[in-house]
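User: Can you help me understand a structure? I only have the sequence.
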Amino acid sequence: MMPAMVRLDRIYTKTGDEGTTGLGDGTRVAKHHPRVAAYGTVDELSSMLGLALAHELSMPYRGYLLEIQNDLFDVGGDLCVPGAPGKEAKDAKKPRLRLTPAYTKRLEEIIDDENAALEPLKSFILPGGTQRSAWLHVARNVCRRAERHVTELMEMPGEKALVNPEVLRYLNRLSDLLFVLARVQNDQGRGDVLWKPGARQG
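Assistant: Let's start by predicting it. Here is the structure, written out as tokens:
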């Protein structure tokens, strides 16, 4: 069953003026709550991918990022509604939007396809090269931060059982994919900027 289409008629509600926000189940929490930090960072990640898309990515990479942006709204929706995965309230009017293993499997398929054509890594690389690659490296770092927020949330008393573990798997794999795609945008890795350990030491 597909979730109902979202309709946003009002841009401001004033309900957050006191420093709280509403989760998807109606619970109100502080705007700095780790759950809010987690899905807020996922939203930031999607914006970073938007910047990468604005730098004229060609297909199929443009298509990959558009798919991932859509996934990230699903990730945010999953995080926004606390609850044990697979368990719905008896009076629920519609099923919760939850990530499934298929989301991560799709990322792994792209990683395997794209990584096969890359120059073998002989050193750590520095973020940079083309603008497209640089933005993907920034997105990768934001993805890692989102992952850290999710693990922080899962360490809170009572929260681990209310977080879908597929969210953490997805973000972990997505950061790997963004690393691979950043290398692709540097001429399949041939334009990567290599780390030179101790270069300043002479």
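Now, to help you interpret it: The chain has one domain: 27-83+97-116+126-191. The domain at 27-83+97-116+126-191 is CATH 1.20.1200.10 (Hypothetical Protein Ta1238; Chain: A;). Let me know which part you'd like to focus on.
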